[in-house]
Amino acid sequence: MTDGERGQEPTSTGGDGEHAGDHVADSERGHDHATDDDRGHDHATDGDHDHHADDAAGVGAAVVTVSSSRSLDDDPSGDVIATELERDGHEVATRELVRDDFDGVQGTVARLVTRDDVDVVVTTGGTGVTPDDVTPEAVEPLFDKHLPGFGEEFRRRSVAAVGEMGMLSRATAGVVDEAVVVVLPGSESAARTGITLLATVLGHLVGLASDDRTH
After folding, report:
1. Which residues make Cβ contacts (< 8 Å) with residue 119, sequence separation at least 6?
2. Residue 117: which domain range?
């Protein structure tokens, strides 16, 4: 993680409810937006398919810190990610440190997603705009499926927290070989924002992405 990256990341996690007032109820507008298909599939009835039936109750995680200056003994961002994952009932199978190097980052992620005890890889660092910030460039070519909504929501929360500088974040996520891969910035506050966002969908996402894995 470079100094330039740290200067572009959120310093707080506030603002999650900023847009709550934007969602006026349909009844207030006088428009019913439910389609015929929606009306035919009331998820509250007994015969409906439970969309969360295959959610993973606990997942195995790998936490990768991308930095040329830190060590695993001095890794507050990685500590936040690992702590939050374990607090949610998941297991941190491994933590690794890799330098800001394209081949090193790509090779590490490609290796970790093949492990039987790893369902999600979370990287932190290397997402800035300086020349040696290469984590997104290294990881995105591995994606079998890109999950653009994660980065979009992360940037929305970042802008709400720190203003326009939040737009510069290059956080991203995708699926690689049936494992979920999430790329977060390197600051502690940005890592907390990202792992909090991921926690809301992680079990469901892993369950969908990893049909052939055993949890």
Report:
1. 56, 59, 60, 61, 179, 180, 206, 210, 213, 215
2. 3-7+57-209
